[in-house]
Design a protein that fits this description.
The chain has twelve helices and eight strands. The chain is an alpha/beta fold and 304 residues long. GO terms for molecular function: 4-hydroxy-tetrahydrodipicolinate synthase activity.
């Protein structure tokens, strides 16, 4: 297990290559993880939303964790998603991840019947008690339809192993204000997803960027992260500007559809979207490829 904090800096979230039946391709997954290790990302977010955790069986999720642990071999901390509808299932997944060698957990309050704040608290408490791994709260109301109140985050931060929160971009755009409110209430490392807001979030004082594009273009994402966190606003804006066309197609089509297509067409890693998700049509696919190809060239040539 790595001793490096997984909740600061760039956390890269790669796709999980799997076939149409949801069987994980361990060899293909390792081909995606190798460049992340070589780039030196702060952590790898395995089985996040981009990693299709919600669509995989317990057995396939364990296959992915075991393959990643073997491939990474302690070089980079692995943060493994353990979200599930039932608390006992989430506990099982958390224990599986710990036994396989994960470094930390990422937990979303997955729900069908909307959860109350108390139900979410008890769910997180049960999972936190089940392992010794540090845990990051996954606040993703766009998929879970659950919103964490500040009081709930404060209560959760009092649990010893809950160390961080992965936040969505604020609807009002007030990152500095939100960070100040969260830090006043909860003793947690605060990071953000929503790649198009990463430069501003990090420049505003966020501790981490939980990045979709970092799973495919780790050197580019790492350069942006370092510039923003170092206060080099001009360089951060330059890099963010290079990525703006990609952010636009992320917003238009959903980042998961875009990165799965790019993994196959540009990185030669076949990764099927789980049904009922469908791949991009020919015209949209060509547009995305045209946008991404020069970024891939820059990534490979380290011309940043």
């Amino acid at each position: 297990m790595s001793s490096v904090s997984p909740f600061h800096g760039l956390s890269a979230f790669p796709p999980t290559p799997a076939d149409i039946n949801g069987r994980v391709n361990a060899e293909a997954l390792c081909r995606l993880l190798g460049p992340l290790c070589d780039a030196g990302v702060a952590s790898i977010g395995l089985l996040g939303s981009t990693g299709i955790y919600a669509y995989l069986t317990r057995e396939e999720r364990l296959r992915a964790v075991e393959a990643a642990v073997e491939c990474v071999n302690g070089r980079i901390p692995l943060v493994v998603g353990a979200g599930a509808l039932r608390t006992d299932h989430a506990v099982d997944l958390a224990r599986d991840a710990e036994a396989a060698g994960a470094d930390a957990l990422l937990l979303a309050p997955v729900s069908y019947t909307p959860l109350t704040q108390e139900e979410a608290y008890q769910h997180f408490l049960a999972v936190a008690k089940a392992t010794r791994l540090p845990l990051c709260i996954y606040n993703n109301p766009g998929t879970t339809h659950f919103t964490f109140g500040c009081e709930l985050l404060q209560r959760l931060s009092d649990i010893e192993t809950i160390r961080a929160v992965k936040m969505p971009l604020p609807a009002d755009g007030d990152l500095r204000g939100e960070l100040a409110r969260l830090r006043e209430k909860a003793d947690l490392a605060i990071g953000y997803s929503g790649d198009w807001g990463a430069a501003e979030a990090l420049s505003s004082g966020a501790d981490a960027w939980y990045s979709v594009i970092g799973g495919l273009l780790p050197r580019t994402a790492l350069a942006l992260t370092r510039a923003a966190m170092a206060g080099s606003g001009g360089e951060a804006r330059r890099l963010d500007g290079l990525l703006q066309p990609l952010w636009e197609v992320f917003k238009a089509h959903g980042s998961i559809r875009v990165v799965y297509m790019l993994a196959e067409h540009l990185l030669d890693v076949r990764a099927e979207l789980p049904r009922p998700l469908l791949p991009l049509g020919p015209a949209d696919r060509q547009r995305v490829l045209d946008i991404a190809r020069p970024l891939i060239v820059l990534e490979r040539q380290s011309l940043l």
